[in-house]
Amino acid sequence: MLALMTLAPGLQARLLIMVEREDTAARVGSGDVPVLATPRLLALAEQATVRAIADDLASGQTSVGTAVTLEHLAASPIGAHVEIGAELTEVDGRRLVFAFTARDRNAVVATGTIERAVVDRERFLARLAR
Fold first, then answer.
1. DSSP string, 88-106
2. For the segment 50-84, what is each residue's pLDDT rounded down to a tens digit?
């Protein structure tokens, strides 16, 4: 049985990036324009969710992504500074729900939710080896 006692709504993390060529749709392959790619934005949002709970998982636990909703609302060109914030909003057993928002200096860039499941790292990896 996984112990989730310290995980509670309100845990948060923030990331701040400057959009670089490697982050663009043209480089990632999700488009042909030099703006922050949606897949890269999602990866950053997931990184924020992982950071939000990193200090509160029990030894041997990790979390894996299970569901995402994302609205990419504004383009962020190379050189733009984008802050991505994630907050744990719901804990339902092993299921965790996060809300995230990405902003640049001018606008909300994206909003969405990410669901993750808390798993025992060794058991999860052992299942992959079978």
1. EEEEETTEEEEEEEEE-SS
2. 999 999 999 999 999 999 999 999 999 999 999 99
87, 49 Cβ separation under 8 angstroms = no
- Concerning whether 62 is annotated as a catalytic residue, the answer is no
pLDDT tens by residue, 110-122? 999 999 999 999 9
Cβ–Cβ under 8 Å, residues 4 and 72? no
Residue 98's domain comprises: 12-129
> One of 49, 66, 72, 87 is an active-site residue; which one?
72
Q: Which of 20, 24, 38, 69 is catalytic?
A: 38
- Decide if 115 is catalytic: no
CATH number for position 40: 3.10.129.10
**Within a domain: residue 23?**
yes
